[in-house]
Design a protein that fits this description.
52% of the residues lie in helices and 16% in strands. The protein is an alpha/beta fold. It has one domain: Glutaredoxin (3-Layer(aba) Sandwich). It has a five-stranded mixed β-sheet with strand order 1-3-2-4-5, sandwiched between helices.
Length: 153
Amino acid sequence: MSVLTLVRGTLMLVTLAAGQGALPAPAAEVQWKKSVGEAWQDTKEQSRPLLMFFTMDGCKYCTKMKQTYADTGVAERINASFIAVVVNARGAPQLSKNYKVTAFPTTIIISPQAQVLGRVKGYVPPDRFAAELSKAVERASSVSHRARRTRAR
């Protein structure tokens, strides 16, 4: 082994130890719950709104909307403020009917008090979707505040 190889190896280790050249952190991903039941239970326990992403196999715009959900800013916002679940409409026709889902994709946001806070139909780019999430968070705060006042009476 040559001195040059040892020096290069040492420099690489020093660089990695200093945080330079380290692999970037993985991008945020939405933490999807496995079922609507699990998601609803967490929504009530954590007092966070439920975000249901209604999709259907073979849906072109559903696939495109998944790109919006893959956006780091959107994923971080969802993970910080919502409990999220994907609903395949073919497997949950009654749930789709109950929430009047007639187009795909559709995202519905529901408060822990079971009030619809927002509904987004079709594909929406990340910046517009983030704005819709912010509106839903504001509505959730208002609904939660009214629920606390009602209980206090």
